[in-house]
Amino acid sequence: MAEENIPNAKDLAATQHFPIEWIKTNPRKVEEILSALPLEEQAKRVLNLPPVFQRELLVLCEDAVAVTQSLPAEELYNLIKELGDEDSLLILSMVSSEQLQYFFDLEWWLGDKFQPERALHWLELLDQCDDPETLEWFLNEDLDQKVMLLQSLIKVFKQDEMTDSYDGVEGLEHFTPDGVYDVFFKIKESKVLKKLFLLMAEKDIGFLHELLEAVIWFPLTITVEKSYQWRLTRTAGRGIPEFEEAIGIYSTLSPDALKQEVPSADNFPGGRFRFSPQYPLTQALLSHFFGQCILDMESEERLDAIRWELVCLGNKVMVADKCDPADFEARKKAMRKAVGYINIGLELGASGDREKGHSLLHQLWMQSLFQVGFEQLKQIRSKASLLLKENGVFMENFVSEGDKEKLGALVLSFPQIAEKGEEGGPVLWRDPETLDDVRAINKFLDRWAFYIRFAKQGLGLDAKTLESKWGGFDYPESGKLEFLTLVTTAFARHTLFKTLSCEPLPISAAKSFLDVVFLAGIFQDEGKICDEDKVSSFERALLDSPMAWTETDRELLRELLVQCVANLEEQFGRLDFKRSIQWQFTQGLLITRSPEGNSIKK
Under the phi-then-psi rule, with left for phi > 0, alpha for psi from -120 to 50, and beta for the rest, what region is 505? Predict the structure, then answer.
């Protein structure tokens, strides 16, 4: 962009924004603009950017440290996880000791178990930064946490009448920060701890001695328990509850919850300017109903509260699902799940009306909408479980592997749906996120409920007959029955013999069926098309079978016959029936080499 087209800094400060591309293309101009803004406005600019630009803009702030320390710890932690260790060093060099404590509370624990390897990793990471707050963190209160950390990494002794028995230090590296205390490292990489001890000796030798005495004398188990309790107190204040409280999000929605006034940002943790973390709403896809309703919202105060509600809800999901809060992918999945359930609940409550959805966001807590969405998935799980309980043995004989996986995913504690991944890659599974997802799942279950009734009542199949596989068949060579194959075989038998049966066909009968079911083509190599009259005749015969046909059943039957026709045309439509057919390379008909077939008298 030409320099003369860029407004001056004063004008841009007044309009309170600048093009995002300037951060890379005109950094000096952005720096000049930011310097004209108060600290709070600079911090807002950073918050409103995607993570990749947040870091770049912080660098351009005149007082980058003050701006960084005014941001919510949750936002900075998310930024660090987005950027990764190496690209986060600049951010870590500017955070406050309070913000560091929040990071440590998430990173150093897995459930109620302290993770010393992670703790050491963070100390080493901070050691790569310029002037981090690590020393200040060591010098502040909560002695138990520091003692717990050091007890996991070092042994400490002192030359006096009570602690001069140096047992268990053979082969451990020795170091003394002051000539009084002897430190032995249980770890190989000791550089960062040595540096910290020397800094503490220089800054406050009395505190260092107090810390080392505590490492010697504090009982290990009690120290860990006290540290964990202090950690719970801190995290509870940041909206991370204990398991017993978190699991309540999966309970039935209480009617009283609908009467509660929605919270304001004052109900949540706040820093210097009471900013709310921005990252939760990045999971609210604009294509989803919730995302569209958020776009309609003009009240910044309510938006701030919603962001905090989403932070707390995401935390509850992680705790209730027993996820590792330090796992970035688990954090993203938990937030996406929370937003997805909310989207389902909001879309259902508003009947798809954006104006009504916008109104509900002003009236209801996000957790209430979450529980409404989860209730839909509980119903799906119950429906799928009942279907499998009543028909699992029967349908096991002909359900496809893909549908078997889909059915299995629906009876999990939290139903999952398949999502297309990369070509040739594994199937990806995700939480349902929209009412369309819920409708698709219900249609899938309704289709299988119909298939089961149709197989039993329309085709006269039972578990015994299916398990016998009519004495055996040769093709498909996999020996695996597929429901579509059974129906197509019944189509062939009706076309040839006017009977409704799925018994395997002898090769001669299968070839005769293919000869008559396809219309003659003009050109020899063009794809053949099934004779619609024969399909309609088969459909009428099925509708005359002893089954109480509903309109939905009729629609599902039509869909099934369309699939049969499509499979026939794909598998056999380009074959030259004057030549020998290589049946082993086809799918769609049950075929036996026996001339008579394996007929079973019904």
Answer: beta
Q: Has residue 112 been placed in a domain?
A: no
Is the domain of 257 the same as that of 364? Answer: yes
Question: What is the rounded distance in angstroms from the CA atom of residue 303 to the CA atom of residue 358?
Answer: 11
* 248/370 same-domain check: yes
Closest-CA residue to 223 (of 142, 134, 104): 142
Last residue of a domain, one of 181, 215, 238: 238
Separation CA 78–CA 95 (nearest Å):
13
In a domain, 597, yes or no: no
Length of the chain in terms of residues written: 602
Domain count, the chain: 5
**Would you say residue 123 lies in a domain?**
no
In this predicted model, what pLDDT tens digit does every residue of 36-73 receive, in sequence order? 999 999 999 999 898 889 999 999 999 999 999 999 99
CB atoms closer than 10 angstroms to residue 211: 20
Measured distance CA(173)–CA(185) in Å, rounded = 5
- Interatomic CA distance for residues 492 and 495, integer angstroms: 5
Say yes or no: 350 and 380 in one domain: no
> Residues 458, 549: contact at Cβ < 8 Å?
no
Residue found by looking up tokens 């688990």 in the block: 330
For 27, other C-beta atoms within 10 Å of its C-beta total: 14
Same domain for 146 and 66: no
What's the domain range around 29?
Answer: 1-95
202 and 291 housed in the same domain? no
Q: What is the distance between the alpha carbons of residues 178 and 137, in angstroms, rounded to a whole number?
A: 21
| 358 in the same domain as 476 | no
Let me know: does 61 contact 40? Beta carbons within 8 Å: no
Per-residue pLDDT of 323-381, as tens digits, reads 999 999 999 999 999 999 999 999 999 999 999 999 999 999 999 999 999 999 999 99
Tell me, what DSSP letter sits at residue 19?
-
Q: What is the mean pLDDT of residues 292-313?
A: 93
Torsion of CA 38, 44, 49, 53, to 10 degrees: 40
77-105: pLDDT as tens digits: 999 999 999 999 999 999 999 999 999 99
Helix-helix angle 366-395:435-453, to 10 degrees: 20
Cβ atoms < 10 Å from Cβ of 71: 27
Last residue of a domain, one of 95, 122, 138: 95
Residue 133: the pLDDT is: 85
Q: How far apart are CA 270 and CA 255, in angstroms?
A: 30
Three-state secondary structure call for residue 517: helix
| Same domain? 388 vs 354 | no
Same domain? For 587 and 464 the reply is: yes
| Domain assignment present for 122 | no
Q: In 221-250, which positions are buried (b, 16+ CB within 10 angstroms) versus exposed (e)?
A: eebbebbbebbbebbeebbbbeeeebeebb
Question: Quick check: 442 pLDDT over 50?
Answer: yes
Dist CA 510 CA 523 (whole Å): 23
Which token pair is 601?
Answer: 């008298």
CB atoms within 10 A of CB 405: 15
3 state SS of 326: coil
